Amino acid sequence: MADRKAVVLVARRTFDDAIARLREHFEVRVNDDDAVWPQDELIRRLQGVQGVYITGSEQIDATLLDACPDLRAVCSMAVGYNNVDLPACTARGVLVSNAPDVLTETTADFGFALMMATARRISESEHFLRRGEWHKWSYDMFAGSDVHGSTLGILGMGRIGQAIARRGHLGFGMRVIYHNRSRLAPALEAPLAAQWVEKDALLQQADHLVIVVPYSPASHHAIGARELGLMKPSATLTNIARGGVVDDAALAQALATRRIAAAGLDVFEGEPQVHPGLLTVPNVVLTPHIASASIPTRLAMSHLAVDNLIAALSGGRPPTALNPELLNRGAEPA
Ligand code: DGY
Question: Which protein residue has the closest C-alpha to ligand 1 atom 6?
Answer without folding.
Answer: 78
